[in-house]
Amino acid sequence: MSADTPLMKEPDANPEGATPTGSTTDRAELIRFTDVTKRFGGTTILDRLCFSVDAGKHVTLIGPSGSGKTTILRLLMTLTKPDEGTITVGGQQLYPASEKQCREVRKNIGMVFQQFNLFPNMKVLRNLTEAPVNVLGLSKDEAEQRARELLDLVGLADKCDAYPTQLSGGQQQRVAIARALAMRPQVLLLDEVTSALDPELVAGVLDLLRDIARTTDITMLCVTHEMNFARDISDQVLMFDSGQVIESGSPEKIFGDPTHERTREFLGAVL
Amino acid sequence: MNFDWSNLGDFMPAFWDGVLVTLQALLGGSLLAFSLGLVWALAQRSSLKVVSWPVKAVAEFIRNTPLLVQLFFLFYVLPEWGLTLSALATGILGLGLHYSTYTAEVYRAGIDGVPAGQWEAATALSLPRSRTWIAVILPQALRRVVPALGNYVIAMLKDSPMLMTIGVLEMLGEARQFGSQTFQMNESIVAVGIAFIVIAYPASLLLRALERRLVR
Ligand SMILES: Nc1ncnc2c1ncn2[C@@H]1O[C@H](COP(=O)(O)OP(=O)(O)OP(=O)(O)O)[C@@H](O)[C@H]1O
Ligand SMILES: [Mg+2]
């Protein structure tokens, strides 16, 4: 986990099999939104939205407040349903789909929330073992071992027996990240995971996410206002406005030389 | 008014019988109210209208009719339907049923009070519905409702003399019986009053202590 390992740059259009790095699924498309429309009341939040994310990529969603970034993550997590359109994850349809099919797809997706949403009635260790035991069918011992390894990874090995309320916000969020990883998801959704934290706690959580991005092949979709972080970890940045992706590209391109007027305005306001 | 405390000695055996019956009614009534109330609360949340609607209607009906009427109904009507219970069992059923409609509201508020984020986290972890209820939602909801449930236990204690009207010899019933045999009411009534305080006051202290521990 040396801090100066450069982000692996993917050469464009490299033929399958010829790549020395990564598995063969690296280049496969994992998530696809096709003509997804979502309305709340009378307002259209997502308007025939189309985009796709390749496996193993780290994609950052940016855009003005209310542009629907959270809604996109919630659609993927099946916390809400689109009004029209289709969403596929790993070739399996998430919508429209039966509840059973949703459940299967959902197992491959983890989410970290702005407000952590740890289970306050369970100790930290059990927060991490509850789902692996009851969903993946791991034995208690296996799940606890996995949980301890993850707590070690997030630097909280000594907090197994604490209750979430006894931890700082930054520690809670790191537990929440570990809890999501305990399910070994293919996709990790991160919704402004540092915006509820005191400023001095932000760096620790972002560093952890940088580490995870670097050392795992997990596909990450994150919504963030931390533009430096976005620049560091992203393979691709998607700019949302008016319910659609108005611009997408490498972080160098979006942050360095945005083509769209709205992107320039937005970045001008947040940077 | 004249008090002759020597009468009290004669009342004591009956008094202790009455205390025991009162505590039995309270315990049975509470257990019934706690468990039935949870059943009603969950049924009212059912997405099946055929389940939620009748439960809501019946609960509303029971909550808005007097306990005394319900006790009479159970005592006189149940036997006609072939269900003959002892007076105490009928009393416990009446208390439990009546108060279950209140505890149902308490549970409902407790469940609604669990933040939406908890449901969402459970979904994000793919926890099955039943597991979400058992491991995540109910433990948090129950912790919140203990103080309110406790208040209903004390209310139930104070309603327990109504069981006298269907022939349950709880504390007040014993006192009245003693009075009608000896024509000495004063001392026994005072003793019963004191007994209520002696039960209720520590119970409410206990509750407050529990509340401090649970609500953080
Ligand atoms: N459950 C809901 N009911 C009604 N309106 C909603 C609901 N959820 C979101 N919205 C609306 O949808 C729009 C998009 O919300 P969303 O949370 O996806 O935006 P966002 O891009 O994440 O914004 P922010 O950067 O402020 O978090 C907002 O205008 C919001 O008010
Ligand atoms: Mg948002």
Shape descriptor of chain B reads elongated
User: H/E order of the elements of chain A?
Assistant: EEEHEEHEHHHEHEHEEHH
Q: Which stretches of chain A are poorly predicted, pLDDT < 50 over at least 5 residues? A: 1-26
Fraction in beta strands of chain B: under 5%
Work out the radius of gyration of chain B: 21 Å
CATH class of chain B: Mainly Alpha
Give the helix proportion of chain A (percent range): 25-40%
CATH-scheme architecture of chain B: Orthogonal Bundle
Q: Rg of chain A from C-alpha positions?
A: 19 Å
CATH superfamily of chain B: MetI-like
Tell me about the largest β-sheet of chain A.
6 strands, mixed
Principal-axis shape of chain A equals: globular
Based on helices, strands and strand pairing, what is the structural class of chain A? alpha/beta
